[in-house]
Amino acid sequence: MIMNVIETDKLTKCFGSFTAVDHISFAVGEGEIFGFLGANGAGKTTAMRMLCGLSTPTSGTGKVAGFDIYKETEQIKRHIGYMSQKFSLYGDLKVWENIRLYGGIYGLSEKQLKAKTDELLRVLDLENERNTLVDALPLGWKQKLAFSVAIIHEPRIVFLDEPTGGVDPVTRRQFWELIYQAAERGITVFVTTHYMDEAEYCNRVSIMVDGKIEALDSPSALKSSFKAGNMNEVFHALARRAKRTEN
Amino acid sequence: MREIDIRHINKAYGEVRALQDISLHIGEGELFGLIGPDGAGKTSLFRILTTLLLADSGTASVCGLDVVRDYKEIRWRVGYMPGRFSLYQDLTVEENLNFFATVFNTTVRENYDLIRDIYVQIEPFKKRKAGKLSGGMKQKLALSCALIHRPDVLFLDEPTTGVDPVSRVEFWDMLDRLKRQGITILVSTPYMDEASRCDRIALMRGGRCLSVDTPEGIRATFDKYLYAVRSASMYKLLLDLRTYPDADSCFSFGDAHHFSIRKEVVDKEGEAVFRKDLQAFLTAKGHADIGIEPIKPGIEDCFMAL
Known about the structure:
The complex is a heterodimer. Chain A is built from nine helices and ten strands. By secondary structure, chain A is of the alpha/beta class. Chain A has a six-stranded mixed β-sheet with strand order 6-7-8-3-9-10, with helices on both faces. A four-stranded antiparallel β-sheet of chain A has the order 2-1-4-5, with helices on one face. Chain B has two domains: 4-219, P-loop containing nucleotide triphosphate hydrolases (Rossmann fold); 223-305, Alpha-Beta Plaits (2-Layer Sandwich). Chain A binds chain B through residues 38-41, 85, 138-140, 162, 165-171, 173, 176-177, 180, 184, 194-197, 199-201, 219-220, 230-232, 235-236, 239-240, 245-247, and chain B through 36-39, 121, 124-125, 133-137, 158, 161-169, 190-192, 205, 234-235, 238, 251-255, 300, 303-304.
């Protein structure tokens, strides 16, 4: 039986009279690639912040990596990885310095750090860029490095917030191959994206509309229940129902 | 004369050659797309055309005006929405719009018809500070501000990056309406699926223009056979397809992999034989529920083949 790495029950977050996340209940299993979709303003970021232990829910319950999202937020932070397109690496540090910094933050020993650094540079084919400032790397390399650094401590789960925006099509696909490899090692991948072809690469996908999860299933099951040819059509069918204006 | 003419433009930042010998002609009323990933040189080209950056060599004109000699005149004639949000975060929606109208010696009322479609969607929030708006609303405000002086030519640098698919479609619908008013539009995007919304596109990568044509014309230049291949185990399928003898390339495309192969390889024995052979190859690798279907290439297939 597969263990759940994320479980939520009626998880809710209000800001004043505005309900950003409205009673969402779902579970994500170990090693699963889970796509978390929704229009801008649907509540994805707010939900993700609660799951990462960065924001206290208004009501409902949730566990991430077995830890309570109200009381054990520090434990959660140790057992998850996080990467977003906007911020991940320090551009004015060298490649090896970034690896060392993140490895150090996640408590790797000197010996582990050295082994991990060599392994990462080899796997990513960055051995010649060891001493390059991260700002000088092409965006696609940066993103692959950022992902590898986000899972340097072999977390139970990694949260990816629009990881592939702006990347060229070949690099975007190479990035997904890294995701597959991580999932095969048992790391759960929780990913948001605006590329609907990427939704197809997920084992299961949820679509949020106005703070609620309106659909959750495998891409093929969603396509057949919405009588849609692809995930783009499923997304459009659901997101057009949105009543609240994003704000 | 609402044209854009670009001749042999070069621009380098130290060692990095951001633009290499770019020549393009964009006609009056055309909706022209610069399609390419981060680092392709799109933003440098926008900054040169909007007179904010000097090219190292080459010439360019907008509305028949030279981007160096006539820069002041050009600034009256064009609207520019940069990739990075650059309105005043501590002014309200309404104040930003009034500010840009005033700078261009006009009023919001005078040109309201041009922005109405877009502005009504953010008008309920007109008292809110621009810095407090969400991404999609900032985008609509920035477009309104770029249009408020009724420009002849509109420059939009990655207006849809980070925007969800539904809002992206709405944004392109807005551009269609602006185009019908005769405004020439140059727009950049990293989303290959948006290419089909343009009259013509330039595929850019690493500072070079790789190809310039209508979206249909670019798709017609794809010179290999392309198949959508599926099986029960998609990641393994990707790796296995790449080991097929004579495989050209194989990439994931949503729920199928796009597998390309040189025409002469298939034509030698005929398509039926090729498909049977590929089927047998995959079966031998342990795949079940195999599907092989010939398909037409999209812009993204073409871009990756360049």
